[in-house]
Design a protein that fits this description.
It contains three helices and no strands. By secondary structure, it is mostly helical.
Length: 93
């Protein structure tokens, strides 16, 4: 029994799938990106928030009051440089 020409022209399924997949180096690079992303997410979750009191400007969390003054950094009194004192007339510099 001879095979028809249609059977010879169609590539096997494995060759068709291999042709559609990207190169192995591209798959390896994407896998590396996924692993690094998972590791960085795990490290960030383990460390916790960098600034616990820092919240987005537009939103509040449940149970918190809305800030009334948008620019006040509460608890930071006296952090600026002291005002310069006027020098008495005739005093050496």
């Amino acid at each position: 029994m001879s095979s028809s020409s249609a059977d010879r022209s169609r590539p096997p399924l494995r060759q068709a799938v291999t042709r559609l997949l990207p190169a192995r180096s591209v798959i390896g690079f994407l896998a590396l990106l996924v692993v690094l992303g998972m590791l960085s997410y795990a490290a960030g979750t383990a460390v916790g928030p960098v600034a616990p009191g820092l919240h987005p400007a537009g939103g509040t969390r449940m149970g918190e009051s809305t800030p009334t003054d948008h620019g006040d950094m509460g608890g930071m009194h006296g952090m600026g440089a002291p005002a310069p004192r006027p020098a008495p007339v005739g005093a050496p510099r």
